[in-house]
């Protein structure tokens, strides 16, 4: 029993965080449910209609679940933190020709840094979420994220840059179950969200139109249309603006080349989008910075890892080479497709995250 230990559960109104709160209460924790208000008030209704995880309906669903399982529920305002750390970052990265991962930024700076700080202020010992991942303390004394028991829902990639302090105060009970088991628990105890669909899109861009969102909300000039070019500078046509494209993209180019072509590079300094063939999208190395160490205190030169370059990438064997105090080169055993600046590369040592960085 964990009697007396207080845990704040971030409740999005979905089945995973709802069951996380139930499991922790059943284990003997003093559980408090908190829904994070993160999106501007004027957009709450629109986000809710499109099924986002941060609209009014999310708080309403979470409140109903909290009442059913017998825990207090509060709504906390994190709008300013979300705007600065997630939305502004998201727009700045796209404007710079990179493809950001806002969920990683939200996890690190809002769902953990900001929520943990406020939770500690009210006397909580831990925060908890409904992520499909596990937190364990290793024999070397360090905390690390471990893959969930289900590869189909594993969410460890998006958690690679949590700090040791954050992990020491984090619980992730859902990581020990697969999705059908979580839904079965919710149904068994009568939760109304037992069969609620998962949120699929970025919560603040529910229609998936990233470029349109940036054009509407950016206070900086949005890059205008420019040229599609080959790697050596031959002009192939006109693009709609670099915020519409990402590395490896094939659809939506509107180029009649007689064969499939792909985005291989984005050049913000010249407002060009480079086009190439399928083989041009593959590379056997990348550079990353903004390193975060998790299961290890630092990367060693020549360290062998499984490197994952995007959320739905299965990972590839690679060697890490140190090229600076906050920069590493990753050399893959075999070429990988669509290494994308702005995305994360996450290093796995077996089931555990060793660390990772941002692809540059």
Using the CA coordinates, give the radius of gyration. 21 Å
Structural class from helices and strands?
alpha/beta
Number of strands: 17
Q: Walk across the major sheet and give the strand order.
A: 12-15-14-13-16-17
Q: Summarize the biggest pleated sheet.
A: 6 strands, antiparallel, barrel
Would you tell me the overall average pLDDT?
93
Can you count the helices? Answer: 8
**Low-pLDDT residue intervals, each spanning 5 or more residues:** 47-51
Termini separation: 46 Å
Overall 3D shape: globular
Percentage of residues in helical conformation:
25-40%
Task: Give a topology summary.
Elements: E1 6-10, H1 15-26, E2 30-37, H2 44-49, H3 56-69, E3 73-77, H4 79-95, H5 102-121, E4 126-128, E5 133-137, E6 143-147, H6 164-168, E7 170-171, H7 179-188, H8 210-217, E8 226-229, E9 235-239, E10 262-267, E11 272-276, E12 282-293, E13 303-308, E14 316-324, E15 327-337, E16 344-349, E17 352-359
Parallel strand pairs: 1-2, 1-4, 2-3, 4-7, 8-11
Antiparallel strand pairs: 5-6, 8-9, 10-11, 12-15, 12-17, 13-14, 13-16, 14-15, 16-17
């Amino acid at each position: 029993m964990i009697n007396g230990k207080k845990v704040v559960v971030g409740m999005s109104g979905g089945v995973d965080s709802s069951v996380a709160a139930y499991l922790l209460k059943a284990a003997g924790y003093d559980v408090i449910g908190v829904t994070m208000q993160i999106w501007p008030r004027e957009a709450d209704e629109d986000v809710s209609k499109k099924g986002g995880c941060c609209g009014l309906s999310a708080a309403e669903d979470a409140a109903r679940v909290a009442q059913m399982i017998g825990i207090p529920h509060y709504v906390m305002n994190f709008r300013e933190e979300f705007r600065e750390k997630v939305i502004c970052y998201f727009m700045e990265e796209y404007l710079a020709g990179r493809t950001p991962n806002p969920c990683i930024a939200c996890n690190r700076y809002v769902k953990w840094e900001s929520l943990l700080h406020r939770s500690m202020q009210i006397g909580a010992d831990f925060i908890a979420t409904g992520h499909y991942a596990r937190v364990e303390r290793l024999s070397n004394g360090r905390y690390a994220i471990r893959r969930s028991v289900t590869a189909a829902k594993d969410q460890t990639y998006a958690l690679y840059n949590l700090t040791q302090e954050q992990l020491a105060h984090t619980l992730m009970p859902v990581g020990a179950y697969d999705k059908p088991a979580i839904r079965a628990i919710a149904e068994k105890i009568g939760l109304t969200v037992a069969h609620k669909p998962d949120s699929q899109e970025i919560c603040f861009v529910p229609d998936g139109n990233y470029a349109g969102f940036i054009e509407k909300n950016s206070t900086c000039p949005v890059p205008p249309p420019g040229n599609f070019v080959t790697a050596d500078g031959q002009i192939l046509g006109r693009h709609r603006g670099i915020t519409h494209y990402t590395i490896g993209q094939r659809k939506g180019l509107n180029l009649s080349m007689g064969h499939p072509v792909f985005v291989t590079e984005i050049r913000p300094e010249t407002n060009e989008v480079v086009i190439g063939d399928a083989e041009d999208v593959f590379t056997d190395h990348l550079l990353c910075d903004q390193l975060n160490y998790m299961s290890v205190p630092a990367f060693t030169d020549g360290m062998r890892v499984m490197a994952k370059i995007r959320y739905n990438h299965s990972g590839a064997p690679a060697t890490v080479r140190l090229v600076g105090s906050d920069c590493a080169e990753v050399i893959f055993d075999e070429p990988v497709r669509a290494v994308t600046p702005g995305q994360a590369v996450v290093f796995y040592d077996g089931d555990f995250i060793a660390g990772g960085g941002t692809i540059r």
